[in-house]
Write a structure and sequence with these properties.
- About 30% of the residues lie in helices and about 25% in strands.
- With about 270 residues, the chain is α/β, with parallel strands linked by helices.
- The chain has a single domain, classed as Formyl transferase, N-terminal domain (Rossmann fold, 3-Layer(aba) Sandwich).
- The strands form four sheets. The chain has a nine-stranded mixed β-sheet with strand order 3-2-1-4-5-9-10-15-16, sandwiched between helices. The protein has a three-stranded antiparallel β-sheet with strand order 12-13-14, with no helix packed on it.
- β4, α4 and β5 form a beta-alpha-beta unit.
- The radius of gyration is 18 Å and the shape is globular.
């Protein structure tokens, strides 16, 4: 049986990336400011924002990355995890993305469920960074899909938290995992104190943890993802991710904590 073709194998030059964002675009900011491979292994060629009043626009402008603003004329907004943004809007998004002919579409805090025709046109080439460990399961399903995942992990008693980069599919946060970040510890003593005296402060603590994750988890996981794709080490075979190592091509994701390819088998 022949070996599957690497993702984006037919490109020439650096991997070209278009970023979609709804807020601060912190993942893109990390790549622009803290990754020496930006501009060599890959290049962020454009950003597409879904609002005029978001700080990520300035982030990309400072990095000399052009930004297009595509507003949803139907009036729906992202941010709920179950928004009803329709295909007309995503047709406009797809047309804007097409103008840059990217290898990869990166969701950097893009708070809308991706729909057709973008899903079809860029099948296997849309990546998202999610502030939770998508390997953790409950009842056979991924436990921390959707929104508010950091707070949910904290109140569920997790001892640590990770970010996950995955390929985007029609199911929310259900696509195959590419990279899992190193863990951040959750201070259970602090949480226990808040539970006793002021439970509302757990929300504040969750917000602080998520801000910390942007730089300690999200950014490094995105950097590794683009490094793997640009290096021709990511394969997609029948909807499953395979990574190339010295031993060959094997099914799995990259675990940044262990610095190795692993199989998705974590349960909770």
């Amino acid at each position: 049986m022949s070996e599957p073709t690497p993702v984006c194998a037919d490109r020439s030059g650096p991997l070209s990336v278009v970023a979609l964002f709804s807020g601060g675009a912190s993942g893109v900011r990390y790549l622009l400011d803290a990754d020496r491979h930006n501009g060599t292994n890959y290049e962020i060629v454009a950003g597409i924002a879904d609002s005029r009043e978001i700080p990520g626009i300035e982030v990309l402008n400072k990095g000399n990355v052009p930004v297009e603003i595509i507003l949803d004329r139907a009036g729906t907004s992202g941010g709920t995890g179950d928004d009803q943004t329709g295909s007309d809007y995503f047709r406009e998004i797809t047309e804007a993305v097409d103008r840059y002919e990217p290898d990869i579409v990166l969701l950097s805090g893009f708070m809308r469920i991706v729909r057709e025709p973008l899903l079809h046109e860029y099948n296997g080439r849309i990546v998202n960074v999610h502030p939770a460990d998508l390997r953790l399961k409950e009842g056979g399903s991924r436990k921390y899909r959707g929104t508010d995942t950091v707070y949910r992990a904290i109140v569920s008693g997790e001892e640590e938290i990770r970010s996950t980069v995955h390929l985007v599919t029609a199911g929310v946060d259900e696509g195959p995992v590419l990279v899992v970040s190193e863990p951040l510890p959750i201070n259970r003593e602090i949480v226990h104190t808040f539970e006793k005296f002021d439970e509302s402060m757990i929300r504040t603590y969750a917000d602080l943890v998520q801000e910390w994750m942007k730089w300690a988890c999200d950014g490094p996981a995105l950097r590794k993802t683009l490094e793997l794709i640009a290096g021709g080490k990511v394969y997609l075979d029948r909807g499953e991710v395979h990574l190339k190592s010295e031993a060959g091509v094997e099914r799995g994701y990259y675990d940044l904590e262990k610095n190795e390819i692993a199989s998705e088998s974590t349960d909770s």
